[in-house]
């Protein structure tokens, strides 16, 4: 089966300059078979997402019409260009490895990972100066998986559904027998229609995860990271906890544990270092209100008993009328 890449005239790329053509024909690779074969025949490439000419790697966004679907579907096309044979050979093995991991371990799972529609190779002519050189090239076509920008780890008031889904997704990947090895809150996680996707399995390997029987608790942050025996899951959980629901907050030189706070007044009345005197008192109050809003929104993450309290009156004038301004500054 063959794949035709047809590049829109507005797509400017050093890859296209190198081959002096806006159409490329690839053929299904014999290195790894992606089933079902022949899913994608033509991709209309519409946008350059990433290029590294020196490393011979180019990522594009495009559209294709899949069998039995009435309208085109967005896809990601990754091309490897072999004008530097040593680099090409190394990266080609990563492409092949990722395709095999997908085909052998992940393609039949109900996971939010980019489906691979095909793995292709070809011979191209590199037109450099007045010479023409034969060059190997490879291509993988993926389901479009969204963007890695502005991931909604928290809502501003607390943990988001996106965070919970991302941790569960990584857990399910491990239960499928795969360790990712390149995962992080800001690495290889994207968002499409509010759903997290995990991409780039080029360094993944088969994995008999010790957490394959693990079930998420009702409240994620009841989980103690030290109980996780799998290093990748443990590190990801710790990063998520630090990003979304840290154990404590900074209050003008002191660290205050969230689970020790039970009112807005208790935050504002907590002692400060003397450098806090440089901050206007009303600004300190606003800081306390933000911390209290976060605690109320995430009460069950820090307090095992009792219902979340109401936010209450957050007026600074009302507080001063009731309590005055007896602020403790302490450098001991």
Low-confidence stretches: none
Query: What value does the average pLDDT take?
Result: 89
Distinct helical segment count: 8
Fraction of residues in β-strands: 25-35%
Biggest pleated sheet:
7 strands, mixed, barrel
Termini Cα gap: 75 Å
Class by SSE composition: alpha+beta
**Topology order in helix (H) and strand (E) letters:** EHEEEEHEEHEEEEHEEHHHH
Side-by-side strand order of the widest sheet: 1-2-6-7-5-4-3
- How many strands in all? 13
Shape: elongated
What is the helix fraction of residues, given as a range? 25-40%
**Rg over alpha carbons:** 27 Å
Describe this structure in words.
The chain is of the alpha+beta class and 332 residues long. 27% of the residues lie in helices and 26% in strands. The chain is built from eight helices and 13 strands. The chain has helices spanning 14-19, 85-106, 161-175, 231-244, 264-268, 281-297, 299-302, 316-323; strands at residues 2-7, 23-28, 42-52, 57-64, 73-81, 116-128, 131-143, 178-179, 189-192, 195-198, 205-206, 248-251, 254-257. Strands 1-2-6-7-5-4-3 form a seven-stranded mixed β-barrel. A hairpin with a 2-residue loop joins strand 12 (248-251) and strand 13 (254-257). Helix 3 (161-175) runs antiparallel to helix 4 (231-244). The longest helix has 22 residues, at 85-106. The mean pLDDT is 89.
Supply the key terms.
two-stranded antiparallel ribbon; 332 residues; 27% helix; alpha+beta
Fold blueprint:
Blueprint: E1 2-7, H1 14-19, E2 23-28, E3 42-52, E4 57-64, E5 73-81, H2 85-106, E6 116-128, E7 131-143, H3 161-175, E8 178-179, E9 189-192, E10 195-198, E11 205-206, H4 231-244, E12 248-251, E13 254-257, H5 264-268, H6 281-297, H7 299-302, H8 316-323
Parallel strand pairs: 1-3
Antiparallel strand pairs: 1-2, 2-6, 3-4, 4-5, 5-7, 6-7, 8-11, 9-10, 12-13
């Amino acid at each position: 089966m063959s794949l035709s890449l047809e590049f829109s005239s507005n797509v400017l790329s050093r890859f296209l300059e190198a081959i002096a053509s806006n159409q490329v024909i690839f053929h299904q690779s014999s290195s790894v078979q992606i089933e079902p074969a022949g899913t994608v025949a033509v991709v209309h490439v519409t946008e350059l997402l990433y290029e590294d000419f020196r490393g011979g790697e180019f990522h594009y966004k495009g559209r294709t019409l899949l069998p039995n679907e009435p309208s085109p579907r967005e896809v990601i096309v990754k091309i490897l260009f072999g004008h530097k044979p040593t680099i090409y050979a190394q990266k080609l093995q990563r492409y092949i490895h990722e395709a095999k991991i997908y085909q052998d371990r992940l393609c039949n799972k109900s996971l939010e990972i980019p489906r691979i529609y095909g793995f292709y190779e070809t011979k191209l002519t590199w037109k450099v100066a007045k010479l023409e050189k034969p060059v190997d090239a490879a291509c993988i076509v993926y389901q479009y998986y969204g963007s890695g920008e502005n991931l909604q780890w928290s809502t501003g008031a607390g943990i988001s559904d996106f965070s919970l889904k991302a941790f569960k997704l990584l857990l399910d990947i491990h239960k499928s027998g795969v360790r990712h090895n390149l995962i992080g809150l800001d690495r290889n996680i994207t968002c499409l229609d509010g759903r997290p996707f995990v991409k780039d399995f080029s360094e993944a390997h088969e994995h008999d995860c010790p957490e394959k029987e693990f079930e998420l608790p009702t409240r994620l942050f009841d989980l103690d990271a030290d109980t996780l025996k799998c290093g990748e899951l443990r590190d990801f959980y710790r990063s998520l906890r630090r990003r979304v629901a840290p154990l404590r907050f900074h209050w003008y030189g002191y660290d205050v544990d969230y689970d020790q706070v039970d009112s807005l007044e208790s935050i504002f009345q907590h002692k400060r270092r003397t450098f806090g005197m440089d901050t206007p008192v009303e600004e300190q109050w606003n800081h306390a209100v933000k911390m209290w809003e976060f605690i109320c929104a995430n009460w069950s993450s820090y307090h095992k008993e009792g219902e979340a309290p109401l936010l209450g009156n957050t007026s600074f004038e009302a507080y001063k009328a009731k309590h005055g301004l007896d602020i403790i500054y302490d450098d001991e």
